[in-house]
Known about the structure:
Elements: H1 6-19, E1 29-33, E2 39-42, E3 57-60, E4 65-67, H2 76-85, E5 91-95, H3 98-103, E6 124-127, H4 138-145, E7 150-153, E8 157-162, H5 165-187, H6 195-224
Parallel strand pairs: 6-7
Antiparallel strand pairs: 1-2, 1-5, 2-3, 3-4, 5-8, 7-8
Amino acid sequence: MQISDPRFRVAAARRILYRGGCDSLVAGHVSARAEGGDSFWMSPFEYFDETTPERIVRLGLDLEPLEGSWEASPAAQFHAALYAARPDVGSVIHTHSHWLSVFVTRRERIGMYNAGSVLFYADQVLHEDDGSGPAVEGETLARKLGDKHVILIKNHGAIVVAETLEVATIKALMLEQAARYHLEAERWGGSEFPEAEVLRGRKAYEKHFLPQMWQANLRRLRRSDPDLFESLDD
């Protein structure tokens, strides 16, 4: 297996999220659109830090199992719906990380309180379950998301979509940090960045920060998670 294999990349994304404080027990999931566009690779039920490439499964957009034997979450349905609705999306990540889960007890978008939060400027939508159906029903979420990249689900967690798995992973990591900065800065009477600085900072973060963060976190995994790399060819 090569390091570019989507099964390895999904497993690596899970380990990066775990190391960054975005673990969601055996819930939460990471997926990446497969080559050809009509199927996707997805993580199974397990802790984020125990995911290995051979446990990743491939599902069709109709949720038909295509590769792998591990059990995928029923929430695969909203991954499939988002891929079907958004041809530009190459990865979907759902977490219930600590600070994010605290933040979404409010009906509010994450503010621009730290440098990394600029990644989410004008790119968040809110979703609240009224109890009449599933909280994360795929077609509903796809309509709600529109052309944005983050859904904050009240009293639940968040969904992050992006054009690549690498970008989605780092954005999910930064969303947790942004939620924490918002809550703590607000507690101390902090204020947000002015809009002009947000717009300038976002361009720099998208061009330089996101790709460098994936590579840096992959290097750290070689030291902290050597078992992840055992499936790679020498």
